[in-house]
Automatic annotation (TrEMBL):
Pfam families: Lectin_C. This is C-type lectin domain-containing protein. It comes from Sinocyclocheilus grahami. Residues 20-118 form the C-type lectin domain. SUPFAM superfamilies: C-type lectin-like (SSF56436). PANTHER family: C-TYPE LECTIN DOMAIN FAMILY 20 MEMBER A-RELATED, C-TYPE LECTIN DOMAIN FAMILY 4 MEMBER K-LIKE-RELATED. It comes from the Eukaryota.
Length: 121
């Protein structure tokens, strides 16, 4: 590691501590980092896969399919059949599943999972 000036256009992804529900994970990421991970492209999706040690982890996509930091979801990587519109969409959040090529699933936000934060823009 060098004492370089960080590239402010990139994100550094960080695995969160323990397992939390989505809201607790968001709070942790905002307190100790920038926010829950938002994913802009396949390269970032692969970076997140490489740091997750469990089978799946929360990322920042939720509810009306916007990121935790309110940015638009221009890139998605849904598992086939996922992103289903359910009656209680306000309680649906997104996890990334490592065993399925990093595909995303929609999950109940109250479930406990590992999670990924980011530092930077």
């Amino acid at each position: 590691q060098c004492p370089c000036v960080p590239d402010r256009s990139s994100k550094g992804f960080v695995s969160g501590t323990g397992e939390k529900n989505w809201t607790e994970a968001q709070k942790y990421c905002r307190e100790y980092h920038t926010d829950l991970a938002s994913v802009r492209n396949q390269s970032e999706n692969e970076q997140i896969q490489s740091i997750i040690t469990d089978k799946q982890a929360w990322i920042g996509l939720h509810r009306l399919w916007v990121w935790s930091d309110n940015s638009t979801a221009a890139f998605t990587h849904w598992k086939p059949g996922e992103r289903s519109i359910r009656t209680n969409r306000n309680s649906i959040c997104t996890s990334i599943v490592i065993s399925d090529e990093g595909r995303w699933t929609d999950e109940d936000c109250t479930h406990q999972h590992p999670f990924v934060c980011y530092d930077g823009e």
